[in-house]
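Case study 2.
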Amino acid sequence: MIKTRREDFGDNRKQYFDENRWVSPVNFLEECWYDKFPKEVQIHDVTLRDGEQTCGVVWREDERIRIAEALNEFGVASIELGMPAVSDEIISAGKFLAKRNLKSEIVAFARATRKDLELSLKCEAARVIVEHAVNEVLNTHVYNVSKEELIDKVCDAIAYLKEKGVKATFMGWDATRTSLDYALEVFSKVAEQSKPYSIVFVDSFGVATPFTIYFIFKKLRSKIPSEIKLEFHVHNEFGLAMGSVLAAAAGGATVFHTSVNGLGERTGNVPTEVVVATFEILLNVRTGVDLSKIYYVSKLVQDISKISPGYNSPVVGEKLFWVESGVVVDAMRKLNKVGIRAAMTPYLPQVVGREGPIVKMGGFSGRASVEYFLEKHNISASPEDIDKITERLRWEGRIRKSVLEDREVLRIIKEILG
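Prediction:
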């Protein structure tokens, strides 16, 4: 068998090409910001809190526990369990999980009020996120607090949690629809005065471009002590969430809030599976997550939430690794023969726990597709018969406006071959 040569890919091919993937070598040029990315990042999964804010989604206690255990097995650094003030079931789930000694850190979510904080402590979470809007308009007209009152309120909440021996994080939401000076002052003063475990900057409505996010995180990192982690939470209103995550990472963020299958309010959070695959496969940035369990976790959340991603959604879409075009199948077969397995996909489906590539027969099938199918089923056919089968399958697929099930393809082949 002919094998690919080193000169086909260059000396640094391990960065972008191996038996399981083939991505862009240009990603790894310093001019393309490769030197700005951290070597590893952490995933803070919000499926159980922000994901539950998807319209119509409610996690029962047993479901919350089951998903948390799957996320722990998956390898995320931390799991946002929910907001204890919403339901006693969240507190009960937290107590149960505290006894499980999970590797993933369990995190509760609270407003900067004594009642919320006390309920979060009942949850027995290892860390509590204290949230408040960092938007001057909202704080003036909705929460009736001045900037100084806001800072004092958040700092008091963090101090209370630290006195109780619990790690505290400040999450400032809607921080992109206010002036940068206002947001930076709030974040930097909270960091200076209360020294939280981490700071979460939130683009709640996905309204900042990735260029803006990079600029903001560079500013944040210059004003907040390096021992305080910077986290990023973003929604996907304009389809820019993953780009913003990369920009935040280049700017200094090392923890990213994600949700399985992109669940969350409105357009949802940036999907956990997309963030993990992008960092691990495109940039060789470690996330601590087991890639092979991505699809398993996605299907679990789909089954429980009754919400499925689009059929061609990145990483977990049902038909993502289906191939129909004869041209694509021809190229895939020829590249496979010279040792390139990830030929017409950026990575093999098995990397993320999927099967495939799966060649489907239909209106766009070609001779290569038919030959692939015949080889798979150990069926011999003459070149003339292959032409007849190809034409018949194309006709059938166009009439039905769909790909054909294997049993239907075999029926047609049997009919033609007699």
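The CA atoms of residues 67 and 301 lie 7 Å apart.
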